[in-house]
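Data card: per-record layout.
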Amino acid sequence: MIQVKHLTITHKKDLTVLVDDLSFVLGPGDRAALIGEEGNGKSTVLKLLYDPALVEGYADWTGEVIDHGCRKGYLAQELPPEALELSVLDYCQSALGFEDADPREISRTARQLGLDEGLFYDWRPMSTLSGGERVKLRLCLLLLAQPDLLLLDEPSNDLDVETVEWLEDFLLSCPVPVLYVSHDQLLLTRTANVVIHLERLRRRTTARCTVSNLDYASYTAQRQAAFAQQEQISRKEHAQYQAKLETYRKIRDKVDHQQATISRQDPHGGRLLKKKMHAVQSLGRRFQREAEQMTPMPEWEEAILAAFDPVKAALPAGKTVLRLDLPQLTAGDRVLARNLHLWVTGPEKIGIIGPNGVGKSTLLKLLADQLLPRDDIRAAYMAQNYFDQLPRGQTPVEILAPSGRKEDITRARTLLGAMKYQAEEMDHPAASLSGGQCAKLLFLAMVLRGSNVLLLDEPTRNFSPLSAPVIRQVLAEFPGAILSVSHDRQYLSQVCQRVLKLTPNGLEEVNL
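The structure for this 512-residue chain is written out next.
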């Protein structure tokens, strides 16, 4: 069990309150989904609960965490650069409990996650594994350690569909408390029985925490119904108040006029008007008190994503975007697939799926290498690892306005503001941003470039449940071409016109 009392987290650099007065208790069987917009502190909460040293470089906190000395298993959103340089074997040997684990248990856990058990003893660098293979490996190591509490930051990221379905079953049957961050709406709907919602309201200056012992669908439905009722009551009260206020103003104006026109020769009338004015002023103060007690309009965070220019991003229907005839797809000495053929014409939207490690990201990078240099299209590429493209030490403004010109900086700040970046966050180094904030930054760069061909590796993986529907809609309406790798079932069905499965024998068209 873990108990959190009055947890408040403040960013050291600008004193922004990320989390304010958060309290909750988790026990066996609790599957708590930690949700909220990008940059609201979800990953910071998980890090702090696992090991406060992970956040001490950028955040201060107050409150109490009571964990009774339980063993915690933590899955970080991304591996640090130094871990990627280790061999798979060295990485596994550094994990708690691996060397003491029963080989049969290692084999069983690997099979559950679709991993070759020989991978644990591989001398390849961790960086050569696909994103999905790394997540599966780390999940295996967590389970082998047999923790009393699981803290999972985006556990479904980069996993193929079959493994996500296994993850859903695992969470539903997990005997220990689980606190997890996920942007997969289906996963949330099917597994969460507690919702912890972190928000930042009033232009992201005020933090609000909501803890609900409901499943995700019930929580969102109840929240929407409560907001609708509150809005209805607030509008009615404001309308009644405005009607009474109008009557008050007429009375006050009448008394003001009488006072201005009364003759000095009528002292009795002057005293009566003075009493009237006192009564009017008393009525005004009563109206002011009523206004303070009225039901406020509900507050919630709205997801915003800058739209692509429909003219710049458009592609003619007959435009040849890609003609790929590839005898074999390789990664180092390994042949991943053979006989790949892919033709893309005009504003097609294509999704590429397949098991982890089959070579999807390798294929997309190869396509990016071909399309990015072309002058007849404006191609943009979003890699699975954002920091392959984002300089860790630069700020969002510096990344979007590399010229340093005043007008470019102003435009960058305007766009970042539209994407709910605070002024202070615009000057934070990219390395301190959340995954969702980095994703938004890359999308803004595509918008500024006027891109008409997008190559996207897991484009929705770090967008919150609030932002994900918006990004799906933006991409579905994008008038250019999209070639994407995704395991997001809703993205594939709502955005992609064609879905291709990468296999060792090439690309196969599938119906989802």
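Known properties of this structure: The mean pLDDT is 86. The two ends are 40 Å apart (CA to CA).

See the next section for split statistics.
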